[in-house]
Design a protein that fits this description.
The protein is mostly helical. The chain has 2 domains: 1-32; 34-69. It is built from 2 helices and no strands. The chain has helices at residues 2-29, 39-67. It is flat and about 50 Å long.
Length: 69
């Protein structure tokens, strides 16, 4: 039974390496932007990120208050 377990773990390891390598290639391809971003666009994106974090904090707070009344 041990050789079959090693075979399965080796197949699973190859599967993970293959798929994570694809993700790595995609991330490397899009790591540098192709277009020049103006200062106003950068500020707007920063504001949107902060707004998203704010919304996530509100959701977490609401979840916690529902659990612990």
């Amino acid at each position: 039974m041990a050789p079959q377990k090693n075979y399965r773990s080796a197949r699973f390891k190859k599967f993970l390496e293959r798929h994570f390598f694809r993700i790595y290639e995609i991330n490397r391809k899009y790591a540098t932007p192709r277009y020049k971003m103006t200062r106003s666009v950068g500020i707007i994106l920063l504001v949107l990120r902060l707004y998203l974090l704010f919304l996530i904090c509100i959701l977490i707070y609401k979840f916690i208050t529902l659990i612990n009344p």
